[in-house]
C-alpha cells in the first residue's frame, strides 16, 4: 500500500490521526497531517482507507 | 429570473421546515426524507423569494461542503432562516469571522488556531474536564433530584471547558451564555440580536485587552503572544470559538441523555459495557445531528452540480440531520443503534470548514455521558416524555429542559 497526501490542502482536522494513529500524525504547530509511514503494511489498510474516506478535504490517496 | 425558475420547480412552495414529526423528537422534519427521495439536491424557496437549493443526501452534502465553488460568505438577506448575522449588515465582514470566509483568507486563520485543537492538545485536557464534570455531578447529587439536567450539567460543562480554554472570567460566563442564546434563537428580533451583538462585542473587547496584558496560558493569551492578529481579528475569532464551543456541546449533552433514556435497551447495553461509549458518541452525533440549519453556502459562479444548474448568488442549505439519515449512507438510518459503527456521519460537517473542535467535543461528550450515567445508575425522566420541550425554533436543536431524578 502506497499513501500520498496533499499537505497544502490539509485543513488540520486530525481525523486521520484519530482513525489511523500508526500511519498519520498531526503537526503541533498548525494541526496539518504528518505522514509517518508512506508504505504501511496491509494490517493498516482498513484504517487508512477509513481515514482517506473521512478526511474532510480528501487529501489522502491510497494506492 | 426568479419567476421562471419557480415555474420550473413546483416543489418550491415550502419554506425551510423546522417542525419535528409529532411524537418523534429525534427524527428530522418529515419533508426532508420526502425531498431526499425525490432528489438529494432539491429546489427550496428562501424567505427573500429566490429559489435556491436544499441538500438532503449524504454524498451530495459531502460534495457541496468540499467544493469551494460553494462560498461560505454570509448569505445575508438570502438566508433560509433568520440566523446570527442574517439580520445584520453584511456589507463588511468582521475580521476574524473565519467561518464566513473562503480560502485562502480562511486557511490563514485556521492554521493559526488548529494547534490549540489537535488530538494531542485535546487529550491533555482529559483530567481537567473530568475534574470539572465530577464537580458538577457532586453539586447535582448534593442538591438531590429532580433537577433540570440542562441547567445543572449540559450548559455548565461546555461553558466551564470553553471559558477555561479561552480565558473567560467567571463573572462574565452567564452573560455570554445569555447573548449566545439570543443570537441563536430563531424567534429573537433583529433589535434583540443587534443589542446582544453590541454587548457581547464590548465584553469581548475588554477580554482581549486583558489577555494582551496578562499573556496567560489560555488560547487568547497565546494568540496575543504568538501571532500578529489584531484586536478586531481576535474579537471575531473569540466570537466564533465561543459560539462553536457552547451551543453544540450543550445540546448534544442534553438531547443525547434524553435519547439514551428513551432507548432503554441501548442504555442498558452501554451500562453493561462502557467500551461501547465511543461508538455511542458517534451514533448520538449522527442520530441527533443538532446543527439543524446549515451549513449554508452561496454559489460563487454559475455551474452544474449533480445535474442541476446552479446560478451565482443562489443559496444552498445543507441539512445535516437529513444527510445523516440517508439510507444510502446508513442501513436502517432511523434506528438508534450504538453498535452500528456510525463513523462516516457529517455531524461536524466536512470540507475546509469542518468543525475544528471535533476532538474536544467528542471528549466532552464521552466524559459527560459516562460520568453522568455512572454516577446515577437509576437516572430517569422526572416528567412524562411528552412534557419535554424541544428547541425547534433554534439553529441548534436540543431539549429546552430535561427534568431528571435518580
TrEMBL record, chain A:
4Fe-4S ferredoxin-type domain: residues covered: 1-29
One GO MF term: electron transfer activity
Required co-factors: [3Fe-4S] cluster
Keywords: 3Fe-4S, Electron transport, Iron, Iron-sulfur, Metal-binding, Transport
Function text: Ferredoxins are iron-sulfur proteins that transfer electrons in a wide variety of metabolic reactions.
Name of a matching Pfam family: Fer4_13
Protein name: Ferredoxin
InterPro entries: 3Fe4S_ferredoxin, 4Fe4S_Fe-S-bd, Fe-S_cluster_ET
SUPFAM superfamilies, A to Z: 4Fe-4S ferredoxins (SSF54862)
Keyword Transcription regulation attached: no
Origin organism lineage: Bacteria, Bacillati, Actinomycetota, Actinomycetes, Kitasatosporales
UniProtKB/TrEMBL annotation, chain B:
Compositional bias segments (type: Basic and acidic residues): 1-11
Top-level taxon in the UniProt lineage: Bacteria
Keyword Membrane: no
Record-level Gene Ontology MF annotations: heme binding; iron ion binding; monooxygenase activity; oxidoreductase activity, acting on paired donors, with incorporation or reduction of molecular oxygen
PROSITE patterns: CYTOCHROME_P450
Keywords: Heme, Iron, Metal-binding, Monooxygenase, Oxidoreductase
Chain intervals for the UniProt region annotation (Disordered): 1-31, 69-88
Record Gene3D superfamilies: Cytochrome P450 (1.10.630.10)
Any Pfam family: p450
Family from the record: Belongs to the cytochrome P450 family.
Name by which UniProt lists this protein: Cytochrome P450
Amino acid at each position: 500500500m502506497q499513501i500520498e497526501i496533499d499537505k497544502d490542502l490539509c485543513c488540520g482536522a486530525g481525523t486521520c490521526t484519530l482513525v489511523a494513529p500508526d500511519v498519520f500524525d498531526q503537526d503541533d504547530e498548525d494541526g496539518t497531517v504528518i505522514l509517518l509511514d508512506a508504505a504501511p503494511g496491509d494490517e493498516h489498510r482498513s484504517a487508512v482507507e477509513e481515514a482517506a474516506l473521512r478526511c474532510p478535504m480528501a487529501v489522502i490517496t491510497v494506492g | 429570473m426568479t419567476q421562471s425558475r419557480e415555474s420550473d420547480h413546483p416543489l418550491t412552495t415550502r419554506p425551510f421546515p423546522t417542525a419535528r414529526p409529532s411524537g418523534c423528537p429525534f427524527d428530522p422534519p418529515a419533508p426532508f426524507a420526502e425531498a431526499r427521495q425525490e432528489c438529494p439536491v432539491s429546489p427550496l424557496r428562501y424567505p427573500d423569494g429566490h429559489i435556491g437549493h436544499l441538500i438532503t443526501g449524504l454524498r451530495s452534502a459531502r460534495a457541496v461542503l468540499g467544493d469551494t465553488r460553494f462560498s461560505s460568505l454570509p448569505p445575508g438577506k438570502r438566508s433560509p432562516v433568520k440566523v446570527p448575522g442574517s439580520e445584520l449588515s453584511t456589507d463588511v465582514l468582521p475580521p476574524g469571522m473565519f467561518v464566513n470566509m473562503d480560502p485562502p483568507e480562511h486557511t490563514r486563520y485556521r492554521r493559526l488556531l488548529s494547534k490549540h485543537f489537535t488530538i494531542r492538545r485535546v487529550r491533555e485536557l482529559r483530567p481537567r474536564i473530568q475534574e470539572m464534570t465530577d464537580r458538577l455531578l457532586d453539586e447535582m447529587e448534593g442538591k438531590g433530584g429532580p433537577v433540570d439536567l440542562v441547567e445543572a450539567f449540559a450548559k455548565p460543562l461546555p461553558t466551564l471547558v470553553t471559558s477555561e480554554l479561552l480565558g473567560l472570567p467567571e463573572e462574565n460566563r452567564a452573560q455570554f451564555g445569555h447573548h449566545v442564546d439570543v443570537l441563536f434563537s430563531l424567534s429573537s428580533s433583529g433589535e434583540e440580536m443587534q443589542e446582544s451583538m453590541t454587548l457581547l462585542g464590548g465584553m469581548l473587547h475588554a477580554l482581549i485587552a486583558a489577555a494582551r496584558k496578562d499573556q496567560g496560558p489560555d488560547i487568547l493569551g497565546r494568540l496575543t503572544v504568538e501571532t500578529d492578529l489584531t484586536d478586531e481579528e481576535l474579537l471575531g475569532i473569540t466570537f466564533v470559538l465561543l459560539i462553536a464551543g457552547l451551543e453544540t456541546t450543550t445540546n448534544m449533552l442534553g438531547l443525547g441523555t434524553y435519547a439514551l433514556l428513551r432507548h432503554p435497551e441501548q442504555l442498558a447495553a452501554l451500562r453493561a459495557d462502557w467500551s461501547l461509549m465511543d461508538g455511542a458518541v458517534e451514533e448520538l452525533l449522527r442520530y441527533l445531528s443538532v446543527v439543524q440549519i446549515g451549513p449554508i453556502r452561496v454559489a460563487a459562479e454559475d455551474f452544474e452540480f449533480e445535474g442541476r444548474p446552479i446560478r451565482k448568488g443562489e443559496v444552498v442549505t445543507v441539512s445535516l440531520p437529513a444527510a445523516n439519515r440517508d439510507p444510502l449512507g446508513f442501513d436502517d438510518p432511523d434506528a438508534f443503534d450504538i453498535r452500528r459503527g456510525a463513523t462516516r456521519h457529517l455531524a461536524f460537517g466536512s470540507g475546509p470548514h469542518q468543525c475544528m473542535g471535533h476532538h474536544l467535543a467528542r471528549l466532552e461528550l464521552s466524559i459527560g455521558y459516562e460520568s453522568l450515567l455512572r454516577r446515577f445508575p437509576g437516572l430517569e425522566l422526572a416528567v412524562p416524555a411528552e412534557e419535554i420541550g424541544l428547541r425547534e425554533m433554534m439553529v441548534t436543536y436540543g431539549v429546552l429542559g430535561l427534568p431528571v431524578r435518580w
